[in-house]
Amino acid sequence: MYNTRTKNPSEYQVIIAIDWADQKHDLRILKDCEEECKVISSDLLTLKNFFDTLILETVNGSIAIVIESCQSALMNLLISFTEFDIYVVHPTTASRFAKTFHLSGAKSDRADTKSLLELYLKHPDKVQKVDSSFSKGKLKRLNIKRRDLVGDRTRLTRAH
Length: 160
Fold this sequence. Notes:
CATH class: Alpha Beta
Distance between the termini: 41 Å
Strand content: 15-25%
Protein name: ISCps4, transposase
InterPro entries: Transp_IS110-like_N
Helix content: 40-55%
GO molecular function, one term: DNA binding
CATH topology: Nucleotidyltransferase, domain 5
């Protein structure tokens, strides 16, 4: 599932740190040495459209995604994109790193994305890259297809 080859952060045109949740996802996007924060609905169609647009804007560039490890629809969606290198951080590692450098102890999604991004930029050896062959498993493909079909059915029933 994990590949030991971690690219240097400078090899990516875009790096996105994601703090995921049930209702919304907070993103911190590093592109051309500029950071931008976004909040996106957890709706899979909205997310897919966002990532499709990002891929089109990042012509011939590579994209890194840094996210706390999870088994969610978001992770399945991310894995379905061959254009992404996905780096997962254990939730305990992310929490301890954030506590170490944010003295106030206040928890916020925006601060969490900043911590995830800093962790990857300063300590790329501490995150694990998801192996691209992981997404090629039959069960994973079937699960993604099932999620797509459920989404299609939901959209069709809402339309009527």
